Amino acid sequence: MALDQQRGATLPLAFSPQAQPAPSVSRSGQVDGTEADGFFRIADLANECKEERIKEQALSAAERITQGRFYVACVGQVKRGKSTLLNALMGESLLPSGVTPVTAVPTILRFGGRHRARVRLGSDEWRDIGIAELEQYASEAANPENRKGVAALEVFVPSPLLEQGMCFVDTPGIGSVFSGNTAATHAFLPHVDAAMVVIGADPPIAGEELALVENVAKQIPDILFVLNKADRASGDEREAAAAFARQVLQNRLRRPLGTIFEVSALQQLVEPTGSKGGWLELVAALQRLNQDSGRQIVRASAGRTLKRLSNQLGVVVNEEREAMTRPFEQSETRIRKLREVVFQAEQSLHDLSFLFSGEQQRLSQAFGDNRSQFLRAVGAAAHNQLNSIRSRLPRTRGPRYRRVVMKVAQDVARKHTLPWLESEQQKAENAYREITKRFTQLANGFLATAKNIGGPEMALLPSELELGQAFRARSEFRFHECTELANPASPARYVADLILGTVLAHSRIAADAHEFLDRLLETNSERVRNDLEHRVSESRRRLESEVRALLRELGAVSERALARARTAQQSGTAAVASSLKRLAEIAAELEALSSISDGRS
User: What residues does each domain of the chain span?
Assistant: First the structure.
């Protein structure tokens, strides 16, 4: 948890559209040169204060504002079909999509004269990639939890919807089993200028979605609500889902909601010529947003961003002023207290780890008990289903009949195992959340203590960690078909199936199929248990690592504050007075810039 990633609680570098090489931008931009003046001034002041990150963000914001670009983020719960919706709006499959959580990092769709894409890894330069390569960087499968360190990912599309400055942002799903994805979406929120919130009929709108919408609505007025996968529900089901969503959203936001657009993005992508009313209404609403509100949205975005960057740089300036004016002995006392806080937190974390181990063992026992209950509960139903399907199969010759019946056994086992896996994952994650509350409460307690000790540098730390953390490791479960048992390579078995009489062969194969079904259920239920235990263990390791990193950062912040105080003391009275005067001038200018931004937002 690097300090520079926490300043102003903006995006981590890995997901920041503003964390780009400083662009060369004319001060008389395409929109209005005066709109960017504030950002250029912040860049100059940040350069003077040796704050390279804020400088780059300011110059990037100037580029975006002068080009009239604004971000419409597509957000919502995992598996709502957000990527498919954006693909349908573009009229072609560009973004990776699927039935499992796919998007790993926010991906920006912006206007371009031709199809192309580019990626930036860490602090490297932009690199052009093919559209077909997007999945290697944007998908969870190829880039789990952004292990490749994608700093920015952009796709240029010659779409009329994007021509006037609107940019779509595909975001990872809220509530994803991959916790890094949820964090990436929340981190992008300060940069959102408008939003499409994608909901569904089944399941209905969830608590995390409501919290997300409320967070977005605090910053922006322009929100479109889309009920996707409308083709999978009956008219009554869609009506009930839309009415429920409208009620809970209006209660949460305390304002009228407007239209909820009922669409099927996948159907629209497959059959664009058959566009239905809900889809046409959504496209028309986006066109109106672009034409009627685009300029106003850009100005509001400029105001919010200018205020945010002014405040971020203001924290840095105040930190320097505090270090120069505070008596060195006072700084030493404060830093000593902070060191004590860190030491106590590390000791408590060590002690809590033993309690976590006990809870982990309890969960492991529960997973084993649940597996036993599953096998007892599902056995008879699975075997009855196998018999039912087998009775309707044509009585082909032995080897072919064996292949067909064994395939049926695999399908029956999968049909019973996968829903149980989903249910167990939810139970396990709920139990894990309860355990992690103790860790996050510990970390938040020490954060609060550190902030009470004071100092402007404390403002650079996160306010708190989220209570009840989700799993930090993705599922590695794959259904094992036991192919080597389904299709034995033994020539003797093949010949026996072939030459036995029809009745004897089919009877023997049926018995083998039931035995095979038991093996499938036992094997895959054990794989489910092992997968859950691995996810708990790995998630625990990552959570403890994050909390320890937070404590190390707290210590590093303290040491930097002490170093600044020592430097200030050694600078001499005249030098300190001169620096204080200049810092006061910068602080006043930043306050003025922040006030100007209030009029723009």
Answer: 3-319, 328-572
